[in-house]
Amino acid sequence: MKSGSIALALAAFAAFAPLSAQEPAPASAPAATTTGMTEPMAGMQHAAPAEPQAEGAPHVAPAEGAAKVDIITPHITDGKHMELPSLNAAHGFAQEVTLPSGWPSFDIPLPIIGNFHVDTSPTKLIVMLWIVAAILIVLLVGAARSHTKRAAQGLPPKGMAGAIEAVILYMRNEVILPNVGHHGEGFVPYLLTIFFFILVANLLGLVPYMATATGNISVTATLAIMTFFVIEIAGMRALGKGYINTIIFWPTDMPLLMRIPISIILTPVEFASKLTKPFALAIRLFANMTAGHIVVLALIGLVFTFNSYLVAPAPVVMAVAIMLLELMVAFLQAFIFTLLSSVFIGLVRESHH
Questions:
Q1: Domain segments of the chain: what residues?
Q2: What pTM does this model have?
């Protein structure tokens, strides 16, 4: 079942993938932006601070509810705070904890961009990646051991191990190998890792007090960059010196006078096509996971906009419907990412034909 390779790849990705996503919380951010999320519905509005008035100007009372707490962006962005369950009903059965800071940080000099600051202190999404990796290590290693034990007894796997084996066999036999092509067994552990990692990360975003790691562009970009290197290395190994033909377009079936202008025109297109593949993988996953959460939170926000419980049933029903759709999207996006990765690997390996 290749679960050992999957577990090792998960641990490595969870440790290094999100470093570029870490940004310290701005010191000037108002406390109400983070702490106000845990207040009950009646306390979601805060009065705006009074501004100094010119001498002799008539006093104008601030409008009630002029400033409202942002309850949408904290759920789809990274940060140094996490919400945990609490038995305190006065704070919405949630408590906010601040993640540790002060871990080592360093700058990476880049030629055009300049210094790229990397902070190794944990953030909300890094904790989520650790949780995803821990869940998958427990599930997949446990399923592998159960499968080995049952196979030694001459029995088929059962329970969760049987379900996981069915998913692995389907993805391997129906999705990965047919698209990767001959001798594609070596790519199965990586592609299965990608599939299960994205799937669990997507599903955790639907659980209360959790967050969607795949709703962050840094996480999806890291996954796409890893896949990009796998694709290109697969092409180098399969094509050898012929790999250069996947970058420089050189039509051998044309006269020399035609080859040169055609090569000048189409070589940039060939090179750009290599970059658009990881870009499409990253943006597709990021946009789909972020859009669903924005729609759900916007629908729930209608209750606070109208400041009435009478309008609550309609937004809640629509939000539940979107959440059910998000459940399907969680599986679909993991499947599509794995499918496209398999197709791209297969295309570069067979491009010499």
A1: 153-349
A2: 0.77
